[in-house]
Amino acid sequence: MGHRGQLTADIVFTDVHVPADNVLGPPDGGLGVALSALVRGRIGIGAAGVGVAQAALDLAVHRLRTRHVFGAPLGAMQHWQFQMAQRATEIECARSLYQKAALLLDRGDRSAEPEAAMAKAYGTRLANDLVREAIQIHGAVGFARRVAESGESVRLEEMYRDAKILEIFEGANELQQWIIARQLIGRDVTG
């Protein structure tokens, strides 16, 4: 559906022996190494979400300035002015989240996991919300891959497909909520 340029394939290891000298990380620490990679990946996906959200906001603002309805720019409508102001604020919040998580990780703080989860969940949800709104602002042009007569393409339909997978990569957003709750309430809470 999305990320058409990404090659995804299975890797299968059967009867593979890895000598102890070639194992990464501490002995019996493979899970820790894998989880550390997920934290880094979540920060990256959070940043990607912010990038998609920013691109969608930029396209939406341009369209609000240039699309006219009822004899005035669509952007003259107070609803869209307030909505875009709110979204710009949310983008800055999402940007701060992934930057804080990256800073904690760069400083060697192993407890960056909840911040990485917050950055990933918030940034990717925002990307989806903003792309959906940008499509709404563009009308049928936003929904189309390309307008046949003019050749115009704003690539929002592609961004919408790509934004959705960001909510799934590096652990679905629902898992991120569990990670955050576990940190807030306690690791020993089950149920």
Automatic annotation (TrEMBL):
**Which InterPro entries does this entry report, sorted A to Z?**
AcylCo_DH-like_C (IPR036250), AcylCo_DH/oxidase_C (IPR009075), AcylCoA_DH/oxidase_NM_dom_sf (IPR009100)
Quote the Gene3D superfamilies the UniProt record gives. Butyryl-CoA Dehydrogenase, subunit A, domain 3
A GO molecular-function descriptor: acyl-CoA dehydrogenase activity
Q: Where is the Acyl-CoA dehydrogenase/oxidase C-terminal domain?
A: 29-184
Q: Which domain of life is it from?
A: Bacteria
Keyword list, A-Z: FAD, Flavoprotein
Task: List each coiled-coil range.
Answer: none
Q: Per the entry, which co-factors are needed?
A: FAD
Keyword match Aminoacyl-tRNA synthetase:
no
Q: Which residues cross the membrane?
A: none
Entry's SUPFAM superfamilies? Acyl-CoA dehydrogenase C-terminal domain-like, Acyl-CoA dehydrogenase NM domain-like
> Record's family?
Belongs to the acyl-CoA dehydrogenase family.
Instruction: Tell me what this protein is called.
Output: Acyl-CoA dehydrogenase family protein
**Record organism:** Frankia torreyi
